[in-house]
Design brief:
By secondary structure, this protein is of the alpha/beta class. It has ten helices and ten strands. It folds into two domains: 88 residues, Rossmann fold; 125 residues, Rossmann fold. Helix 6 packs across helix 10. Bound molecules: NADP nicotinamide-adenine-dinucleotide phosphate (NAP).
Length: 285
Amino acid sequence: MILDGKATAAAIRASLRGDIEKDKARAGRAPCLAVILVGEDPASQVYVRNKENACADAGIDTVSYRKPASIPQAELEAFIAGLNADQDIDGILLQLPLPKGLDAQPCIDAISPEKDVDGLTAVNQGRVAMSVPGLRPCTPAGILALLDHYGISVSGKKAVVLGRSILVGRPIALMLGARGYDATVTMCHSRTPDLAAVCREADIVIAAIGKPRFVTADMIKHGAVVIDVGINRDENGKLCGDVDYENVAPLASAITPVPGGIGPMTISQLLVNTTQAWKEKLLTK
Ligand code: NAP
């Protein structure tokens, strides 16, 4: 089974559109996401445009701010503080990576946790670790939404996560192991010995390491679920994931493609989070 993130994300956007339409009059306005892009990185410009288009499709307003790469750290943090105080903004997206010379985590932590729709502040990461409600990081939440959509339960399964970043590996490992999901999780990294043997034990493999086609068929148990988070270019410049899709797919019971797997799910989760922040601010108080 191919887990189609593109189609699933489109279905999520359609459902959000309905939700937003229904509650807009009561809230007084549509949800609104502030998007901050610092510098001129071409890949970041594409990502930001895709996110803005997805927002428009779901009925979420966006306000875009472009800042020069030369912006001082304090000025960027003060700008974010201003958006925190703006009652017409529900979510703040700071596109990463930031240009050299800017320290990302203090800028992320300058975002109010209630507007942190990327779920990357220390507060929201802490909420993941404690398994209490909060805005969840988009890629891990997108992975769980895709598994839910296809009715794949992780309860009682052995999950192996490759990668331990705060963006993907660490939070997805915590979320899979939380009460309600109840997987038994092993989180691996670049110093894990005999990774292939660890992976072969897994019912679910989640690859988030950023190495083209690193996960090969000999690392996968027959019937495993394989989630490929990686977005890489191979030696010919072709887009590919962390998994050797061609050779792993015949073994897997379910697998995500790249592109069209976790990428679109990550964006749809940003919209889910922005809508959640809007509802919490305007509808539940
Ligand atoms: P990252 O911050 O660079 O972290 C990579 C992780 O992989 C690290 O924990 C690293 O271990 C581990 N690793 C590297 N080489 C390894 C190896 N040979 N064996 C085992 N572990 C290894 O990357 P990231 O931000 O998590 O992103 C990972 C990938 O996902 C990238 O391709 C990125 O583009 C992609 N991504 C996709 C989406 C999406 O929407 N689809 C979203 C976010 C990221 P150490 O900690 O030991 O260094």
